[in-house]
Structure formats: structure tokens, C-alpha cells
């Protein structure tokens, strides 16, 4: 139905249409939807270049749970230190929504929101389970995902572990991304050598390898500049 919610399959077709260079009107005709529905969908989920069907579906589900009474537990604001808990909680919800809409899985976004808005910048697994009303397994999986990307660290606190985030988080995450760029550059270079630079496939892989090599070098330089900026911070 034109007025109903977009399905995951429709979002997949929108993504395919955008990748093929189709305009909103063409995609709308193919789906039997109003053009305005397509334009709003794309605008709120990354734009023409950043639209991803799976991420759009996840973000829509998150927004629906927020609107539905009892559909998703709110994140109770922690250690507000005299600040209005409701205002802090509302910001946390907006923060989570933004992260989800820009590609972060929901549970990972909720944990990051807890850490970023806590003055201590740290929490335990038990505290996250109680605060987010989720299972220990969900917390463990999400923290592992965040840790792998350099977004969360671990510290010993007696017999417990604390998950921490500090001012160096984006430097650490950036370095983790540099490692990913290096892996892309290395494997695509291997592919280019295997298939031959003179072949279309080999040339494509070779160009990809050079792109990630240059990107990785630029990222290392940017990270070093930021590290020096932090070390000189009074």
C-alpha cells in the first residue's frame, strides 16, 4: 500500500536503484510509491551516497520502538550530578538514534551513549545489564564488537572488569581503521598480482589497493597530528 511502511525488500530495491543512478521518481514508479516517500526515506537514512537498506531498516525499527509505549526501555540517565535527568535522558535517546541512523547497531549505540554521557566514562557489565535491561550475553557481544574497533577499553577493578571510554577514543578507533585499510590494500594487491594488472579485474583490484594504501597513509598522518595535539594540550 502506498501509505504503508516500507518493507526491507523495498529498502533493498531503493538501495539498488540509487546504486544504479536512478532518480527518486524512477524508484518511486518501480515501487508504486509516492516520490516524497522515497526522498524522505533516503534523506533520513544517509542520503544518496550513504543509503544502506539494512541500516535504514534497523534505524526505522529503533524509531518505532521509541515511539511505542513500552516497546523499548528508556536509558535511565546516570550520575547526572544535579543536571535534569529527563533532559539528559532525552539527549541520550537522540544520541542513540543518531548513531543508529548513521550505521551503528542498536545495542552498540546504547552502550556508547551510556559511556559518553557518564562523567566517569566507565561501567561494568552488571551495571549495563541493569541500566539497559538486556541480557549479559547481549552486553558481552556488543562490548566485544566495540572493543575490536577501538571504541571501548577494559580495566581491572578488583575482581571485576570495567569498560571505559576516554578522550583518546577516536584516536584509538582511527588507528583500528588504519589497520583495516592496510588489510584491504594488502589483499586487493594480492588479487591484482594473481589476476594480472593487464586484465580488467586485475586493474580494478590494483586501483583498489592503491586507493587504500594512500588512504591509510593519510589516516596515519592525521592520527599522528591529533596525537601531538593531545600531548601538547595544557
Describe the structure.
The chain is mainly α. It has three domains: 8-67, no CATH class; 85-165, Winged helix-like DNA-binding domain superfamily/Winged helix DNA-binding domain (Arc Repressor Mutant, subunit A, Orthogonal Bundle), CATH 1.10.10.10; 169-232. Helices cover 67% and strands 6% of the residues. It is built from eleven helices and three strands, in the order αααααααβααββαα. A three-stranded antiparallel sheet has the order 1-3-2. Residues 70-74 have low confidence and may be disordered.
Secondary structure blueprint with pairings:
Layout: H1 8-19, H2 24-31, H3 35-43, H4 47-50, H5 53-67, H6 85-101, H7 106-116, E1 122-124, H8 125-132, H9 136-148, E2 153-157, E3 160-164, H10 169-195, H11 200-231
Antiparallel strand pairs: 1-3, 2-3
Helix pairs in contact: 1-2, 1-5, 2-3, 5-6, 6-7, 10-11
CATH class of the largest domain: Mainly Alpha
State the distance separating the first and last CA atoms. Answer: 60 Å
Structural domain count: 3
Which spans of ≥5 residues are poorly predicted at pLDDT below 50?
70-74
Mean pLDDT: 84
CATH architecture of the largest domain: Orthogonal Bundle
Largest sheet composition? 3 strands, antiparallel
Strand content: 5-15%
Number of helices: 11
Amount of helix: 55-70%
Pfam families: HTH_38, MarR_2
Region (Disordered): 49-85
Domain Transposase IS30-like HTH: 5-45
GO molecular function: DNA-binding transcription factor activity; transposase activity
Amino acid at each position: 500500500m502506498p501509505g504503508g511502511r516500507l518493507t526491507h525488500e523495498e529498502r533493498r530495491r531503493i538501495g539498488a536503484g540509487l546504486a544504479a543512478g536512478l532518480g527518486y521518481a524512477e524508484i518511486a514508479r518501480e515501487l508504486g510509491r509516492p516520490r516524497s516517500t522515497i526522498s524522505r526515506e533516503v534523506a533520513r537514512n544517509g542520503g544518496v551516497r550513504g543509503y544502506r537498506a539494512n541500516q535504514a531498516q534497523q534505524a526505522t525499527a529503533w524509531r518505532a520502538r521509541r515511539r511505542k509505549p513500552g516497546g523499548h526501555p528508556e536509558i535511565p540517565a546516570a550520575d547526572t550530578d544535579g543536571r535534569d535527568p529527563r533532559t539528559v535522558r532525552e539527549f541520550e535517546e537522540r544520541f542513540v538514534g543518531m548513531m543508529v541512523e548513521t550505521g551503528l547497531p542498536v545495542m552498540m549505540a546504547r552502550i556508547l551513549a551510556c559511556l559518553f554521557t557518564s562523567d566517569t566514562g566507565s561501567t561494568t557489565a552488571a551495571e549495563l545489564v541493569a541500566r539497559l535491561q538486556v541480557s549479559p550475553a547481549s552486553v558481552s557481544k556488543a562490548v566485544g564488537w566495540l572493543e575490536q574497533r577501538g571504541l571501548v577499553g577494559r580495566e581491572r577493578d578488583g575482581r571485576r572488569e570495567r569498560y571505559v571510554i576516554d578522550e583518546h577514543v577516536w584516536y584509538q578507533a582511527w588507528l583500528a581503521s588504519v589497520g583495516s585499510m592496510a588489510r584491504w590494500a594488502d589483499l586487493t594487491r594480492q588479487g591484482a598480482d594473481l589476476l594480472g594488472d593487464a586484465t580488467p579485474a586485475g586493474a580494478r583490484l590494483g586501483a583498489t589497493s592503491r586507493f587504500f594504501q594512500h588512504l591509510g597513509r593519510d589516516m596515519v598522518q592525521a592520527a599522528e597530528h591529533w596525537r601531538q595535539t593531545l600531548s601538547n594540550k595544557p
